[in-house]
Design goal:
This protein has a three-stranded antiparallel beta sheet. α2 packs across α6. By secondary structure, the protein is mainly α. β2 and β3 form a beta hairpin. The protein is elongated and about 60 Å long. It has helices spanning 3-7, 15-38, 45-57, 64-70, 78-87, 109-129, 134-147, and strands at residues 62-63, 91-95, 103-107. It is 62% helix and 8% strand. The mean pLDDT is 90.
Amino acid sequence: MKIEQAIQQKKFRSEQHKAHINVLYTAAWLSLQMTRMLKPYGITSQQFNILRILKGLHPEPATIKLLTSRMIDKTSNTSRLVDKLLAKGLLDRIECSQDRRRVDIRITDKGLELINTASEKLNLLEEGMFQLADAEAGELNRLLDKMRTNE
């Protein structure tokens, strides 16, 4: 569906303004799709992001600082998210014997099982949702990266 139809707006100040609105709308749409897919697993997209980061590091642990730096949503409260995942048994907290202030976080077997299963579902969502050829996806990635050159 074209952005004009989706938000019922016929005119935009410029193509850049239209692109801005289109990116915001599409990001919200993707977030909603991901939220729906993750609901049966009892985790949020931010919690999924933490599990995915820790799976990539497995079997090595990570600090809260490292997780925060690698999060997609930089406004997330990483400590609170980790606490919720710990309570669900998806993560382990490992206290450092040399520095009691340092706490390492590691994904559990239960967390690995959940992230693997949820990732399979999300992969199916991506395959069915994106009508982009590889070259188109590459161009979209290039343009999105270009938008963030002042990051």
